Amino acid sequence: MLKKRLRKRKTTVYALGQYISMSAHKARRVIDQIRGRSYEETLMILELMPYRACYPIFKLVYSAAANASYNMNSNESNLVISKAEVSEATIVKKLKPRARGRSFAIKRPTCHINIVVKDISLDEYIEIDSLNPLKWSKKLKSKKKYTAMAYNNIYSNGGVWDKK
């Protein structure tokens, strides 16, 4: 009797940007907006956001999608940003000359940005048990979630005020 070993197909690809000259806090502000979104929606968000951190993150997302299309032959419409991380890197220290022969330390923070892209079309939802085909139908059923939209008047119940 032959045993077949099933290998799970790789569904994630990443792009890593190291020593990007910007603080990790400013990059996290942008990364939090794109985490979990689709590739096409992410590109639109990054083009329209007014932050300086958007351009290097845009390049990394584009690079991760190029890696996915080259390595896994995946379509860009099936890609989702599954994981996006920002970690602090080394701080570049410079000395600036000041008055009376003194020096002033300038600290330029850098960060590492890691973006993981997942192809949802390659995701394996079904584990096929060839001995028991009755299990197939249970795993194929999807649970539908319905959400109701509720209208709340923000002026009558003390909601969020417009900050200027």
Task: Compute the CA-based radius of gyration.
Answer: 24 Å
Give the % helix: 25-40%
Strand order of the largest sheet: 1-3-2
Measured between the Cα atoms of the first and last residue, the distance is 74 Å
State the oligomer. Answer: single chain
Proportion of β residues? 25-35%
Protein name: Large ribosomal subunit protein uL22c
Keywords: Chloroplast, Plastid, Ribonucleoprotein, Ribosomal protein, RNA-binding, rRNA-binding
Subcellular location: Plastid, Chloroplast
Main location: plastid
3D structure, described in words:
By secondary structure, this protein is of the alpha+beta class. It has one domain (12-128): Ribosomal Protein L22, Chain A, CATH 3.90.470.10. The chain has helices at residues 24-34, 39-48, 54-71, 134-140, and strands at residues 12-20, 79-97, 103-119. A three-stranded antiparallel beta sheet has the order 1-3-2. Helix 2 packs antiparallel against helix 3. Residues 125-130 and 136-164 have low confidence and may be disordered.
